Amino acid sequence: MAQPTPFDSKEIKRRMHGAVDALKHDFGGLRTGRAAVSLVDPIHVDAYGASMPLNQVATVTVPEPRMLSIQVWDRGLVIAVEKAIRASNLGLNPQTEGQVIRLRMPDLTQDRRKELVKVAHQYAEKARVAVRNVRRDGMDHLKSLEKDHHMGEDEHRTKSDEVQKMTDETIKEIDAALKVKEAEIMQV
User: Model-level pTM?
Assistant: First the structure.
């Protein structure tokens, strides 16, 4: 009979934190009232016969709170970058001056802010579900180890409590990140 894989709490913790990292990445793409370099991370440009991330063909900076400045390295790609920004559904209108493209952040209306908060809540819920799935996988693994007599009842209970504690801490971390993002979105 094959040896079962031992229970690894570090692996569970790593997977839970993966959900938190994914949430923070999702939050980075949510537009708040101010400019952030991460806002253009999802944009890909058709350059040199391939689809490339914007940050591989240009330098993105934030010269002022409500503006992004994109310095395109190759003059021949300026039009492609501009086209990619327009196609990105970010609702931004690029203004080109030579190899520099400026993106002004329009003020967010109260309704738009509320919509963005709802989206942030959806992202957070997706992360919570991912964490709960990791918890379930961990608990199932512990049950099978106990059932196959590779772990005692006391050890099973101790490890289960450890998994539950990790889950609670990670959910708290997600809720805290959501609260910060919500405040950032609603700030006028």
Answer: 0.69
